[in-house]
Amino acid sequence: MVDQGPEELAQNRRLAPQTGPYILRSLLADVPLSADGDRDDIEINVVEFLDSNLYIGTSASEILHFVQIPPDPQDPSGRPSYILASRLPPAYHESQVAGRPGVQQILLLPKVNKACILCNWTVTFYSLPELSPVFGTTQIRPCNWIGGVDLNLGDEASQQDGRSPSVTVLVSLNRKMRVVKIGDDPRAIRTIDFAGSVMSIRRDSFACVADARSYALLDVDRQLKIPLFPISSLDDSGSTGGRVEDISGNTGGGISRSTSSAQGSYTPPTEDRSHGRSKSLGTFMTGKGVQTASGDRAGADTPDIFREDSPAPQIPPIQRDPSPGSNKPLPAPPAESIAAELPVTPAPAPVYLKPHIVSPTPQEFLLVTGTGLRDPGVGMFVNLEGDVTRGTLEFETYPDELVTDGRGAGVEPTAGNFEDEEEGYVLASMARKFGESLRYGVEIQRWDLDPGEGDTQKYWLEAPVDNNSDNENQTTGIGLRYVLNAGETFFDEVVEALRLKRFLPFEPRAMDESILSLRNVDSKAVMALEREPKGHKRRPSSRSKPGSWEDLRNSEELQFAQRLGRSRSHVVAWSGKDVWWAVRNPLILRLDANLSVLSSYERVSGNFVSTNRPKIVEVINSLRGREAKTEAEFLGMGYIRQRAGLLLFLSILDALAQEPSETEYRAAEEALLEGGLDPRVILAIIPFLRNEIVEGDTGIWVHGGIRDTADKFITNGISDMSASAIKDINMSGHILHFLRRFLAAWRKKKGFGSIANENEVFRSVDAALLVVLLEVDRSSPKGPPKGKSVRVELYDLVDHGMDCFERAIALLEAHHRLYVLSRLYQSRKMAGEVLATWRRIVEGELDEGGEFREGEQKVKEYLTKIRNTALVEEYGVWLATRNPKLGVQVFAEDRSQVKFEPTQVVKILRERAPGAVKDYLEHLVFSKNHAEYINELIAYYLDIVTSKLSESQEARDILTQTYSSYRALRPPKPTYRQFITDNTINEEWWHSRLRLLQLLGGGQGSASEYDVAAILARIAPYSEELVPEVIILDGRQSLHEDALRLLTHGLGDYDTAINYCLLGGSSIYHPISSSLLPSPANRSTPVTRAEQSTLFRALLAEFLKIEDISNRVEQTSSLLSRFGPWFDIQEVLAQIPDTWSVELVSEFLVSGLRDIVRERSEVSVGRALAGVENLKVSAEVIERRAKGGPSVEA
Description:
Elements: H1 6-15, E1 22-28, E2 44-50, E3 53-58, E4 63-69, E5 81-88, E6 103-109, E7 114-119, E8 122-127, E9 143-147, E10 167-173, E11 177-182, E12 186-192, E13 199-203, E14 206-210, E15 214-219, E16 224-230, E17 243-246, E18 254-256, H2 259-262, H3 335-341, E19 357-361, E20 364-370, E21 377-383, E22 388-395, E23 401-405, E24 425-434, E25 437-446, E26 459-461, E27 479-490, H4 492-498, E28 500-503, H5 526-530, H6 549-564, E29 566-575, E30 578-584, H7 587-598, E31 600-602, E32 607-609, H8 613-622, H9 631-652, H10 662-675, H11 679-685, H12 687-690, E33 700-703, H13 704-717, H14 723-726, H15 733-747, H16 758-777, H17 790-799, H18 805-814, H19 818-827, H20 831-842, H21 855-863, H22 869-882, H23 884-892, H24 902-912, H25 917-927, H26 934-951, H27 953-968, H28 976-982, H29 988-1001, H30 1012-1019, H31 1027-1036, H32 1040-1051, H33 1054-1062, H34 1089-1103, H35 1109-1123, H36 1129-1135, H37 1146-1188
Antiparallel strand pairs: 1-30, 2-3, 3-4, 4-5, 6-7, 7-8, 9-10, 10-11, 11-12, 13-14, 14-15, 15-16, 16-17, 17-18, 19-20, 20-21, 21-22, 23-24, 24-25, 25-26, 27-29, 28-33, 29-30, 31-32
């Protein structure tokens, strides 16, 4: 890896997005550290902020007091300004040997409106906020540290007992510590025997303190100490924990540590406890200090009640960064005190590190140990008993400054921290090596997560780079401070990202060549895709004039978004002459910057190159289950989802990129849907779908960051497509399928009240989805869909209603999808348009899908379901004209919603579809059994048959030939009716003749009493060809002998002749499925045996006249054998030729004689039974007379 030079590093810092949890925002720039501006060696030592007052302590022993000026109401950023109110040189005692570090501490006590300033080892007191001296000339010196305010008490806690407020602080002197109560005056209430302390942090009565070498835990009230561990882990000179020591001076030995000794039943005292003590600070002497020539601002005569009179033990110098501009160390106190106490040892001096103590929770302290200034540091948590809790923190190098921010996950809120963020961070200022260069910055990490519970990622934050500065390297350390009051910062980036701006999909743009790889679009559809459908409202693309509705909307959106850009922070940072707020980087900016890193756009190629799709998916997944705590965070999470999904989609469009995985597809889809991105933005990116966008009267409004991303891609990545260019577009399959899923999911949101401009949005979605499905369906095979195909989805789209109805009609017409168009009409119950579209398909107009199979049958079924009489009549006639047999069913269907009278139908058909009249009558007669229309139907059949015979000799020859062929058949043979049915000719006249025979000879009841004479007159010229018809008509006229003669000799249909006799000549050419036996419907009275016998005798006479002797013998013998009982033996014997052998009629004779014998026997038995019955009656008469006795007749 090649090391970057200073200029390259500075450039990278300018361009690098801020993805860390904190960001530095300017609080005050170019602080006038030198009053005359002639010194460059002055540094900022400490910063405090309270109630719009900024206090800056410098190494020049001055405090700069700045007052905050409220922002100008017209300033959109809302940033306040600061003016220098005063430049205060705190009083201090000049040391002869110790250095002058300047202002070391600014301790603000808002509860008592006092400030304690530690400057050059001297503490002085001032009032707030103007920093006027108080307590006369009272000082504390030499002092190493003043602090130890109870962090468990709020800064503004008020007295509940009516007494004056006071605050207890800890003062670190060289030989001891003092507990001082500051109220109306300072009062020492306790002395703690702990020498050389340089830092203290207190919770209730427990203070964690540090001297130059180690940390310890003090019980301030009970004067107990628990040694903890050394600051430098290489220092093993002192004891490390294990025992509780009494430092009150009453005992000389240690006490074993236990829970009871550390806390027990002891209740920590409040601040008011010291008011009961009688101990005082002594008599305060008054006087005015005069600064001497040596720089002693207090003067030799200034009284110092807190000054130690005896020499103090040495506080070893703390090792600091020797590099230029680093934070100055805490110098040792005056040399006089050091020389008196420090024993001389031959051992080499140990490494002294600056102690760091912070208290992130009410029950814990965080302490830092290490081995060297450039070695890693370790943060350790101890509780109020001195026990180590939590896991350790690791710092890249030993910190120069340390602060914590945030309540911490799982920590119970208290009065002092309930407004803090839940996530707890530790910020450590340090110097780190990058290559060969040493850079100063802030290392940031979470302190409230154990290593196994979450991400231990560390972040590096450097001071902002001034674009106009020549010195781009950060060569000075960064100071950190957790100030009393939170300051407010304003994020323009949040406002710009979340503010809704109008998106103009049809705005003219200067564009490069397109990078899309889209599917080929049928040139026939270009007209429909280009034209502006009715209802697609677009406002002019030019920007609105001032004062227009759009300006008003922009103003409202800006005002709303400005509320979201405000943030507060307690942490300040400084370096050089600049002071910043170290403010939490809003979630939206962090993730937005991360997305910018993961996706880079190249202007030259017009591609989103090196887009890290898996990492973007991780960003999307990181939002799952995360609950927004503020309105800004809620909107920001939605924005991040939108932008992440949009970036994934744009990378999918890259024709050169690898095809996305299913996970990436689904992540992009879910992010866009959950984020609620207006789908019209996606449509605007696709030239093929842009024309389907409906802007409406109010336009399209999206987050500013979304608009910028989409505009950049459209401007630089897609050329403005004209009608001719659309023909050359190719839409790739995976893009189509993504759009198909995305738009289908959007349609499911219909009816959600949270969707703005719902009408325009769903009109656009429906139209675009229709276009996509039509394109995907182009590759589907013709015909009805099979399984869960895209065609089923297309049907479902149009069946369940489309908001863009007129546009959908235009698109379907352009794509020649007439059947789908008919389904669209059906969804609106537009029966007329449905039937008109189906008629176009049936009549041969192009339908690309080819789904409308058996169209005439579907038209017929649809007509039975609608209630519009005019439509049923119109399309019923149309269908009857095309397909008479099917069309007439429309008018005769019982299930039809519209009923027609048959006479009305016949009239309609005769006028508008004469070719269907016959079929309608047939349907009535044969299917519906309406016998009243038989005569009319017979007339139609006769017209067809006679017309054919009159004009075609061939037809006459065919009929004649059928008779010859049938007669030539040897028995057993079918009936003539069966014969001509089996050998049918597929011509209308032939089928009409079969139906005519069925009507003339069938059983249609009394209504079939047609005009025989009229029919005979019409068929008389064709009696030779229409033999069966003549036979039927002879039977109707009771000319049975003629009929039997024609059956026997004209046709040779012997079985039919026999049936004729059995049925009494009433019906012979009935349908094949009809019963051969007479039914009450065929005759008014049953056929008697006598009638049958008469007909059989006539038939026997005709059989005996058959020319073929073998047929004659065969048929006669069969007739006599089967139906002998109907004949008289004597008559038969008289008719049978004498030349016939008796054997030919033996069965008849045997049967006849058997019948005679049976009849005679039956007569004899009958006579005998009658005689017996007569004897029985005579016996009964005699018996009754005997019983009655004699009677006398008068």
